[in-house]
Amino acid sequence: MGAKVQPKIPDDVDEGRRRRRRRARGAMVEINMTPLVDVMLVLLIVFMITAPMLTSGVAVDLPEAASSPLPGQDEPLSVTVDAKGKIYLQESEIALDQLAPRLQAITGRKPDARIFVRGDKGIDYGTVMSVVGAINQAGFNKVALLTEAPSGRAARTASTASPAR
């Protein structure tokens, strides 16, 4: 008995068998990037449109000053004096004599709460200082005056105000 001779199989039939074996082992997985990129672009556009709408508050023309930003992790309270001399706590108008009790109620009488004072640059300096004085008399010692950065930069900076005593 001799060795059996196997017939020659054409190359194209042999290729088909290899492909079937490969498919039987596992499917080739490919990630289609086009839908992912489409979704990311839509999200980018949505955030670009909504981000400017999220910044709300009282419109104030802040003065310019060269100072470094204050470090801090907690969200500060904002007291604003507009061009007409009206005082706002966050976004609600408030009288000067009601400012200290309202601040104490909001902060839970914590004297280390950060308070930013924004005063319109056209307003009388004494009006802004009376607001800062009322805040200091209420026992708050972390009071800062917000200003615009000079030379057209849009970033806000804060400079610390010394306690009015």
UniProtKB/TrEMBL annotation:
Record membrane topology: Single-pass membrane protein; Single-pass type II membrane protein
The keyword Transport is assigned to this record: yes
Descriptive protein name: Protein TolR
Localization per Swiss-Prot or TrEMBL: Cell membrane
Organism: Benzoatithermus flavus
InterPro entries: ExbD, Tol-Pal_TolR
Keywords, in A-Z order: Cell cycle, Cell division, Cell inner membrane, Cell membrane, Membrane, Protein transport, Transmembrane, Transmembrane helix, Transport
Superkingdom of origin: Bacteria
